[in-house]
What we know:
By secondary structure, this protein is an all-alpha fold. The chain is 75% helix and 3% strand. The protein has helices at 2-15, 17-23, 49-83, 88-111, 120-136, 139-163, 172-198, 207-227; strands at 30-32, 35-37.
Amino acid sequence: MFALRRNSIVTIQRIFPIAAAVRYGSSTTATGAYGTHNTPVASNETLSREDNKLLDQVIRVDHAGELGANRIYKGQHFILRVTNPRVAPTIQHMWDQEKYHLSIFNKYCTEHNVRPTVLRPLWDVAGFALGVGSALLGTRAAMACTEAVETVIGDHYNNQIRETAHLEDKHPEFSKLREKLAELRDDELGHLNAAVDDWEAQKAPAHGLFTNAIKLGCKTAIWLCKRF
Ligand SMILES: [Fe+2]
Ligand SMILES: [Fe+2]
């Protein structure tokens, strides 16, 4: 009976590195998503219910956000490669970075057994429609869309980095996760800067109204993904 339980825990540790090692209070080595860590677990504390919920929420929301971002850039590229081929490589570059971001959260979802949002089909359609719609309004409008989205997402990643600060010492995997959040935030802010500095996002028609509407939509999407 003991052997069976021990084997089960080892299996869980392989599949869910942070969750298993911390939730089961391991003090041995842990094999993580981004390599093998020979550092002992910093603490034998198990995660509280609130911390577990926070971890699931961070991964679920970010997975959904990166999925939406991929769809937006796909929609923009679909239009702008025809209407303004000069900007297409920039959009492609941003889209490629979003593909990388999504691959990270696909991995986290699998490794930590996090259920993706049930609203995924909605973000698929809404993201692509926003990308196509903004690009049809012109390059500046497409870039104003990027400015709005990346402003909200940059703030969102900063909030998550702050909210997970207390997890830092609980396991080395949490440091890795928070480093990833910072890396992705920097990419998103790079998109924001490119849109504003290089592609005149703020000269888009009805810029204030347009960006505020998109920011509100993004904040609503984050709120929904935290819950569903
Ligand atoms: Fe992203
Ligand atoms: Fe982005």
